[in-house]
Amino acid sequence: ATYTGVTLAGGTTLGEVALGASLDLMRPKNAETGKLLARRAETQATLTADTPVGSWRLGAEVQHLGKRYDDEANTKPLAAHTLLNLTASTDIARDWRLLARVDNATDKDYESVLGYATAGRSFYLGLSWSPR
Question: Are 20 and 51 in contact (CB under 8 A)?
Fold first, then answer.
């Protein structure tokens, strides 16, 4: 396999809103056949934004994965898809942070592998301990 490509990434802050973006343009191919590698997209992009709201930090992430193929012969396409993920975190005590995340917030149907279901909307709750 050979991977060639470029990644562009950057970020900025507008007021209290932190913005980020990345774009991957790749050519993941089988060195012997010249075909694209199975389940590897040529295009992937992410946009992020987060901001403080009261004692919370709220964020959103949009992830796009381009068209790819499920097989080495490049005959079974997997459609491109875009997902929305949401995050929230707050300090609850010294060294302790509560984290929450909603992945695939719009409950989009998509396939990572042809014929296999992927997770719909998923919720995560966590606790982080970072001694200072």
Answer: no
